[in-house]
Amino acid sequence: MLCRCKWAVAHELLKEYHDHEWGSPIFNDQKLFEYLTLEGAQAGLSWLTVLKKREYYKRAYHDFSIDRVAAFTEEEQEELLTNRDLIQHKLKLNSVIHNANCIIKIQMEHGSFSNFIWSFVDHKTIVNQWASSKEVPSKNAISEKMSKSLKAHGFKFVGPTICYSFMQATGLVHDHTTDCFKFENFSGDKNKEP
6-190: what CATH class? Predict the structure, then answer.
Protein backbone atom coordinates (compact mmCIF):
# COMPACT_ATOMS: atom_id res chain seq x y z
CA MET A 1 0.00 0.00 0.00
CA LEU A 2 1.35 3.40 -1.02
CA CYS A 3 2.07 5.91 1.71
CA ARG A 4 0.85 9.39 0.76
CA CYS A 5 0.85 12.86 2.25
CA LYS A 6 -1.90 12.82 4.89
CA TRP A 7 -4.03 15.49 3.16
CA ALA A 8 -4.40 13.29 0.09
CA VAL A 9 -6.01 10.18 1.60
CA ALA A 10 -9.53 11.44 2.33
CA HIS A 11 -10.97 11.24 -1.22
CA GLU A 12 -10.19 9.55 -4.54
CA LEU A 13 -9.97 12.91 -6.33
CA LEU A 14 -7.36 14.05 -3.83
CA LYS A 15 -5.39 10.82 -4.25
CA GLU A 16 -5.43 11.14 -8.03
CA TYR A 17 -4.35 14.78 -7.92
CA HIS A 18 -1.62 14.04 -5.37
CA ASP A 19 -0.27 11.01 -7.22
CA HIS A 20 -0.19 12.49 -10.72
CA GLU A 21 0.03 16.26 -10.45
CA TRP A 22 0.82 17.94 -7.13
CA GLY A 23 4.46 18.89 -6.88
CA SER A 24 5.41 17.96 -10.44
CA PRO A 25 7.31 20.80 -12.14
CA ILE A 26 5.13 22.72 -14.59
CA PHE A 27 6.66 24.97 -17.26
CA ASN A 28 3.73 25.44 -19.62
CA ASP A 29 2.17 28.92 -19.38
CA GLN A 30 -1.36 27.65 -19.97
CA LYS A 31 -1.06 25.05 -17.20
CA LEU A 32 0.48 27.62 -14.85
CA PHE A 33 -2.49 29.89 -15.58
CA GLU A 34 -4.85 27.02 -14.77
CA TYR A 35 -3.19 26.34 -11.42
CA LEU A 36 -3.07 30.03 -10.51
CA THR A 37 -6.78 30.30 -11.32
CA LEU A 38 -7.74 27.23 -9.30
CA GLU A 39 -5.64 28.28 -6.31
CA GLY A 40 -7.37 31.67 -6.38
CA ALA A 41 -10.78 29.98 -6.59
CA GLN A 42 -9.91 27.84 -3.58
CA ALA A 43 -9.28 30.77 -1.21
CA GLY A 44 -11.45 30.18 1.86
CA LEU A 45 -12.64 26.79 0.59
CA SER A 46 -11.35 23.21 0.51
CA TRP A 47 -9.18 22.00 -2.36
CA LEU A 48 -11.60 19.10 -2.84
CA THR A 49 -14.37 21.59 -3.62
CA VAL A 50 -12.22 23.05 -6.41
CA LEU A 51 -11.21 19.65 -7.80
CA LYS A 52 -14.87 18.65 -8.05
CA LYS A 53 -15.51 21.75 -10.18
CA ARG A 54 -12.28 21.66 -12.17
CA GLU A 55 -13.80 20.32 -15.40
CA TYR A 56 -16.44 23.06 -15.32
CA TYR A 57 -13.69 25.66 -14.96
CA LYS A 58 -11.84 24.16 -17.92
CA ARG A 59 -14.96 24.46 -20.06
CA ALA A 60 -15.85 27.96 -18.89
CA TYR A 61 -12.33 29.26 -19.50
CA HIS A 62 -11.68 27.40 -22.76
CA ASP A 63 -9.16 25.01 -21.21
CA PHE A 64 -7.43 28.05 -19.72
CA SER A 65 -6.38 29.54 -23.04
CA ILE A 66 -4.68 32.75 -21.90
CA ASP A 67 -5.38 34.71 -25.09
CA ARG A 68 -8.99 33.54 -25.28
CA VAL A 69 -9.76 34.37 -21.65
CA ALA A 70 -8.00 37.74 -21.87
CA ALA A 71 -10.36 38.63 -24.74
CA PHE A 72 -13.58 37.73 -22.91
CA THR A 73 -16.42 40.11 -23.70
CA GLU A 74 -18.68 41.67 -21.06
CA GLU A 75 -21.37 39.22 -22.10
CA GLU A 76 -19.03 36.27 -21.50
CA GLN A 77 -18.11 37.70 -18.11
CA GLU A 78 -21.79 37.92 -17.21
CA GLU A 79 -22.26 34.28 -18.25
CA LEU A 80 -19.64 33.26 -15.69
CA LEU A 81 -21.66 34.93 -12.96
CA THR A 82 -24.73 32.85 -13.81
CA ASN A 83 -22.83 29.57 -14.23
CA ARG A 84 -23.83 27.58 -11.14
CA ASP A 85 -21.17 24.96 -11.84
CA LEU A 86 -18.50 27.51 -10.87
CA ILE A 87 -17.79 28.89 -7.42
CA GLN A 88 -19.99 31.95 -7.41
CA HIS A 89 -17.71 34.74 -6.29
CA LYS A 90 -17.81 37.73 -8.60
CA LEU A 91 -14.37 39.09 -7.71
CA LYS A 92 -12.71 35.69 -8.10
CA LEU A 93 -14.40 35.02 -11.44
CA ASN A 94 -13.56 38.43 -12.88
CA SER A 95 -9.98 38.21 -11.61
CA VAL A 96 -9.29 35.31 -13.99
CA ILE A 97 -9.84 37.52 -17.04
CA HIS A 98 -7.83 40.30 -15.46
CA ASN A 99 -4.97 37.91 -14.60
CA ALA A 100 -4.92 36.51 -18.14
CA ASN A 101 -4.22 40.02 -19.43
CA CYS A 102 -1.48 40.45 -16.82
CA ILE A 103 0.14 37.19 -17.98
CA ILE A 104 0.21 38.44 -21.57
CA LYS A 105 2.11 41.52 -20.42
CA ILE A 106 4.59 39.37 -18.50
CA GLN A 107 5.06 37.13 -21.54
CA MET A 108 6.01 40.20 -23.54
CA GLU A 109 8.47 41.36 -20.87
CA HIS A 110 10.00 38.02 -19.85
CA GLY A 111 9.49 35.73 -22.83
CA SER A 112 7.09 33.49 -20.91
CA PHE A 113 5.09 33.43 -17.71
CA SER A 114 6.99 30.27 -16.81
CA ASN A 115 10.35 32.02 -17.02
CA PHE A 116 9.06 34.78 -14.76
CA ILE A 117 7.54 32.40 -12.18
CA TRP A 118 10.49 30.02 -12.04
CA SER A 119 12.91 32.91 -11.54
CA PHE A 120 11.66 33.13 -7.93
CA VAL A 121 13.35 29.78 -7.20
CA ASP A 122 16.32 30.26 -9.55
CA HIS A 123 14.68 27.84 -12.01
CA LYS A 124 15.14 24.82 -9.73
CA THR A 125 12.69 23.06 -7.44
CA ILE A 126 13.25 23.64 -3.72
CA VAL A 127 13.06 20.19 -2.12
CA ASN A 128 11.88 20.38 1.48
CA GLN A 129 12.09 17.50 3.94
CA TRP A 130 9.00 17.66 6.12
CA ALA A 131 8.39 14.63 8.33
CA SER A 132 4.75 15.57 8.82
CA SER A 133 2.11 17.62 7.00
CA LYS A 134 1.85 19.68 10.20
CA GLU A 135 5.36 21.03 9.53
CA VAL A 136 4.52 22.33 6.05
CA PRO A 137 4.11 26.13 6.08
CA SER A 138 1.20 27.98 4.51
CA LYS A 139 3.57 30.63 3.12
CA ASN A 140 7.26 31.52 3.10
CA ALA A 141 9.59 34.38 2.17
CA ILE A 142 9.54 33.40 -1.51
CA SER A 143 5.75 33.30 -1.71
CA GLU A 144 5.69 36.72 -0.01
CA LYS A 145 8.07 38.04 -2.66
CA MET A 146 6.10 36.41 -5.48
CA SER A 147 2.86 37.84 -4.13
CA LYS A 148 4.27 41.37 -4.00
CA SER A 149 5.66 41.07 -7.50
CA LEU A 150 2.45 39.66 -9.00
CA LYS A 151 0.40 42.37 -7.30
CA ALA A 152 2.81 44.99 -8.66
CA HIS A 153 2.12 43.53 -12.12
CA GLY A 154 -1.61 43.97 -11.49
CA PHE A 155 -2.63 40.42 -10.54
CA LYS A 156 -5.52 39.75 -8.17
CA PHE A 157 -6.10 36.89 -5.70
CA VAL A 158 -2.37 36.28 -5.37
CA GLY A 159 -1.73 36.65 -1.64
CA PRO A 160 1.31 34.89 -0.13
CA THR A 161 -0.71 31.85 0.98
CA ILE A 162 -2.26 31.42 -2.48
CA CYS A 163 1.20 31.86 -4.00
CA TYR A 164 2.67 29.19 -1.75
CA SER A 165 -0.10 26.73 -2.66
CA PHE A 166 0.56 27.57 -6.30
CA MET A 167 4.29 26.92 -5.78
CA GLN A 168 3.51 23.54 -4.22
CA ALA A 169 1.11 22.54 -6.97
CA THR A 170 3.45 23.48 -9.82
CA GLY A 171 6.62 22.00 -8.38
CA LEU A 172 8.49 25.17 -7.47
CA VAL A 173 8.64 23.65 -4.02
CA HIS A 174 8.52 19.91 -3.38
CA ASP A 175 6.48 19.52 -0.20
CA HIS A 176 5.65 15.83 -0.22
CA THR A 177 6.41 14.56 3.27
CA THR A 178 9.41 12.26 3.68
CA ASP A 179 7.21 9.19 4.25
CA CYS A 180 5.31 9.80 1.00
CA PHE A 181 6.11 7.65 -2.04
CA LYS A 182 6.30 10.84 -4.14
CA PHE A 183 9.13 12.14 -1.97
CA GLU A 184 11.15 8.98 -2.52
CA ASN A 185 10.54 9.06 -6.28
CA PHE A 186 11.41 12.71 -6.84
CA SER A 187 14.52 13.29 -8.89
CA GLY A 188 16.03 16.73 -9.36
CA ASP A 189 17.29 15.79 -12.83
CA LYS A 190 13.68 15.62 -14.02
CA ASN A 191 13.32 19.28 -13.12
CA LYS A 192 14.09 20.59 -16.56
CA GLU A 193 11.93 22.41 -19.03
CA PRO A 194 10.92 20.00 -21.80
Answer: mainly alpha
Q: Which pTM was predicted?
A: 0.93
Q: What is the DSSP letter of 11?
A: -
Residue among 17, 22, 35, 57 flagged as catalytic: 17
Largest Cα separation within the chain, whole Å, is 50
Has 17 been annotated as catalytic?
yes
Catalytic-role residue among 22, 34, 35, 39: 39
User: Contact 194/27 with Cβ under 8 angstroms?
Assistant: yes
- Which has the closest alpha carbon to 166: 73, 43, 71? 43
What are the tens digits of pLDDT across the range 124-174?
999 999 999 899 999 999 999 999 999 999 999 999 999 999 999 999 999
Residue 193 has pLDDT above 70, yes or no: no
> Which member of 22, 35, 47, 57 is catalytic?
47
Ramachandran angles phi, psi of 127, nearest 5°: -95, 110
Give tens-digit pLDDT for 30-60. 999 999 999 999 988 999 999 999 999 999 9
Q: Would you give the distance in Å from CA 130 to the centre of its chain? A: 21
Confirm whether 34 is a catalytic residue.
Answer: no
Instruction: Respond yes or no: is residue 47 known to be catalytic.
Output: yes
